[in-house]
Amino acid sequence: MATRNRTTVYRKHRDACKSARAPLSDSFGGPVIEMVSGSFARSNHSSYAPLSTNDPGPSSDDAFTIGLPPAWVDDSEEITFNIQKVRDKMGELAKAHSKALMPTFGDNRGDQRVVEMLTHEITDLLRKSEKRLHNLSTRGGPSQESNLRKNVQRSLATDLQSLSMELRRKQSTYLKRLQQQKEGQDGVDLEFNMNGKMSRLDEDEELGGMGFDEHQTVKLKEGQHVSAEREREIQQVLGSVNDLAQIMKDLSALVIDQGTIVDRIDYNIQNVSSSVEEGYKQLQKAERTQREGAMVKCATILLILCLIMIVLLILKNVLF
Amino acid sequence: MVLVTSVRDYINRMLHDISGMKVLILDSETVSNVSIVYSQSELLQKEVFLVEMIDSIPVSKESMSHLKAVYFVRPTSENIQKLRYQLANPRFGEHHLFFSNLLKDTQIHILADSDEHEAVQQVQEFYADFVAGDPYHFTLNMPSNHLYMLPAVVDPSGLQRYSDRVVDGIAALFLALKRRPVIRYQRTSDTAKRIAQETAKLMYQHESGLFDFRRTESSPLLLVIDRRDDPVTPLLNQWTYQAMVHELIGLQDNKVDLRAIGSLPKDQQEVVLSSEQDAFFKSNMYENFGDIGMNIKRMVDDFQQVAKSNQNIQTVEDMARFVDNYPEYKKMQGNVSKHVTLVTEMSKLVEARKLMLVSQTEQDLACNGGQGAAYEAVTDLLNNESVSDIDRLRLVMLYALRYEKENPVQLMQLFNKLASRSPKYKPGLVQFLLKQAGVEKRTGDLFGNRDLMNIARNMARGLKGVENVYTQHQPLLFQTMESITRGRLRDVDYPFVGDHFQQGRPQEVVIFMVGGTTYEESRSVALQNATNSGIRFILGGTAVLNSKRFLLDLEEAQRIARSGSHMV
């Protein structure tokens, strides 16, 4: 696919034009020091306003004077940073999951705690990012700035949603495998229990039953303890799944459906202009309703006060 | 594939090298070029968070210097002026200018002159100057399409602008494909000849350096033909999905606007029909109406199955699965309702306008012989109250095109009947059509009754019968493509420009139809390409016609011709 770069030709012309302009202005300039808002200023992303008297003077809304982006850009940058952190942590979480699920002889409580902690951190980051995302929503009428913010919001919402879905999927597989393990262990406990009961019946005739009972009870208690812990973990994972589901629901309102008309660039451009008018009409309607709403409230309060007064009056008459 | 991919590649390259938050600024033509191949969500992924039109950049005081501006516009004088104004008061941090066609040196000079703040980082030419709707079909969406019908003396500057735009579009296409073709044109059309010669001048003389690509064994062929050689295809009613939607409702840049039709839910008022994004559409766009109905029913059944299983949520796992699959489900639902709505609306229109009846006669007029029977049929339909005006007009036009020379008395009777029945009919329109595209003006054998071979073939077909009487028509383009495939395109009818010549058969052929293409022809090209005959065809035109648009162009041309003759 062919292209042609005209930048060098362009630059040559531009420099030629500049040098043609410069000697002209020198002729009126006199001893005034001119600061050239030229190429060196561009590269610093700031500019020095030309101080020469020839210049009409920069207006305060010269786009060059302030190079700082508006405040909401900080929000969006922080969210992007969070998204990157979440991605890293998801990698760690995957490793922690597989470690926690490995059958061990000892107690793998430490691994489970690591899993819990990571999941908490990730969910927290996602929730924080989502709250921040709402800060990007615009107030006031539609403008170029608000359109920009809306699009940034959409893009970040899509990323956050895909991350939440990934997390949920990972968690549900972890949960499933935990459950399988737990059942396995319960099955062992049950067996143990049954064996314990049977042996107790057998041993009942004998006098050594007590000692065995204790042995069985201890084993039983241990088994119960372990399964209770597994229960707790599962509950926790379920809880975070619910959290995520909530976040996803909120985000899905912001994400674009692909392949539909809203995903078309020309449709979005058309709608910007029509939505300005719509927005204005809606604002007017809202204002009207609000005023009327206030009226209704006042009227109701007055009515209630009247009723109270009447009641007091009646009471006064009755008592005296 | 090749057209859509070229435009996408251009856009990807534009956005790839520039990091950070970007704003994309388009003009009214490039917005179509871009929207048809690139979606909003893909733009967002490339960090383009704002899209603006160059004419409506507000003179607001908002400083957007944290954004980098990517301009993608046509190098017209109006756009250059707007750019000048914007460069004099730059609002964005950086400005990257991409033009969709060749820049003249004077234009560069003007821009450089007004760039006092040195706001422009780069100026490039990226040749995505056509609307790539389908893999092998493009259009230029030209507004005053009727100019090709008028002789040059009527509006010389208008025709020059028209011809320039076409030449620019064709040049951009070949630059995107990185080829330089051998050029042939239709002898009987002045406009086609002019365009062919100007394209040759551009590619071989003015910008021969730019077009000097690596030679392949056989050069591609550019064939410039005129719509008036086949006026029958745009007048016919269509029964294959894409063509039918365009004919009955209207397809613009792969979008269908259903707002005029009844009351529909908000998300179905405007829909997108794109073979790239919609798998069902891709497999059904060339199928006829009956088959589409069956396929849609199958799709609806599949969807109902999925919906039923989604209602059966009993365990937590089911719930989790439902939430996971919800986006897919929603997409499927949207797609199903879109197609069902379209087919329902089209069925309603077919019923209301009695199109089954009308179309049968149309196809007979286009394909089979028998003047007497044709006259009877057309008169019957003209007398039928429920046939709409536009359908009556089309029938008379088709009859006139076919039986122009036979039985002039009956032809006159039909004209009179048409004028008396249709109050809005502009008198003389049919005669104007005959003057433009009558039997003397046409090169190709439109009705298969000139060449002995064709007559024999038609008789054989009549005896064998056809599968579907509504889709029996083959556009003239099909015969042209066959001749090219066999290497038998006559030099007498389609001469070469200048001293071009072609060895053997070309492997790539671009057919440009001045005056517009139709979706029936695009379907013909797609089906031909699917046969893998060793030649790849690409079709393009100044617009995509349906019968309404073609008749509008005719009326506009007639109006101008009339007023011109008054002045003379």
From TrEMBL, chain A:
Region Disordered, annotated ranges: 44-64
GO molecular function: SNAP receptor activity; SNARE binding
Main location: Golgi
Entry's transmembrane regions: 294-315
GO biological process, any: vesicle fusion
Topology of the protein relative to the lipid bilayer: Single-pass type IV membrane protein
Compartments in which it is found: Golgi apparatus, trans-Golgi network membrane
UniProt cross-references to CDD domains, sorted A to Z: SNARE_syntaxin16
Keyword terms: Golgi apparatus, Membrane, Plant defense, Protein transport, Transmembrane, Transmembrane helix, Transport
SUPFAM superfamilies noted in UniProt: t-snare proteins (SSF47661)
Biased composition (Polar residues): 44-57
UniProt xrefs under Pfam families: SNARE
Residue ranges constituting the T-SNARE coiled-coil homology domain according to the UniProt record: 224-286
This protein's GO CC annotations: SNARE complex; trans-Golgi network
UniProt cross-references to PANTHER family, sorted A to Z: SYNTAXIN, SYNTAXIN-42
Similarity section: Belongs to the syntaxin family.
Protein name per UniProt: Syntaxin-42 isoform X2
Protein source organism: Raphanus sativus (Radish)
From TrEMBL, chain B:
SUPFAM superfamilies named among the record's database cross-references: Sec1/munc18-like (SM) proteins (SSF56815)
Gene expressing this chain: LOC108814535
Name by which UniProt lists this protein: Vacuolar protein sorting-associated protein 45 homolog
Pfam families documented for this protein: Sec1
Family listed: Belongs to the STXBP/unc-18/SEC1 family.
Keyword Protein transport among record annotations: yes
This protein's record includes keyword Transport: yes
Location within or outside the cell: Endomembrane system
Membrane topology classification: Peripheral membrane protein
Main location as per UniProt: membrane
A GO-annotated cellular component: SNARE complex
Organism: Raphanus sativus (Radish)
Keyword terms, alphabetized: Membrane, Protein transport, Transport
GO biological process, one term: vesicle-mediated transport
